[in-house]
Specification:
about 80 residues; alpha+beta; three-stranded antiparallel β-sheet; two-stranded antiparallel sheet
């Protein structure tokens, strides 16, 4: 998720993976794959940087991820 700002200064988060395109003329509009569109105060370059940062964090977390070891009780012999 990335956090962006509406024209009324309220902040909200959108799923960066669902962005279809971004337009700037003069307002920045973020178009989502489901047809929703959001007018934001950030520039197109800022939104792109937010998406790139989000993806870099995901890759970094995945690279350093160690799945938890299952806590299986030891086998007992009868």
């Amino acid at each position: 998720m990335i956090v962006v700002t509406r024209l009324n200064a309220t902040r909200f988060a959108i799923n960066a993976d669902l962005i279809e395109r971004i337009q700037e003329n003069p307002d920045t509009v973020v178009f989502m794959v489901n047809g929703a569109k959001y007018v934001v105060t950030e520039t197109m370059e800022e939104v792109i940087a937010l998406v790139a940062g989000h993806r870099a964090r995901v890759v970094s977390l995945a690279r350093n991820y160690e799945p938890p070891q299952p806590s299986v009780p030891p086998l007992t012999h009868r």
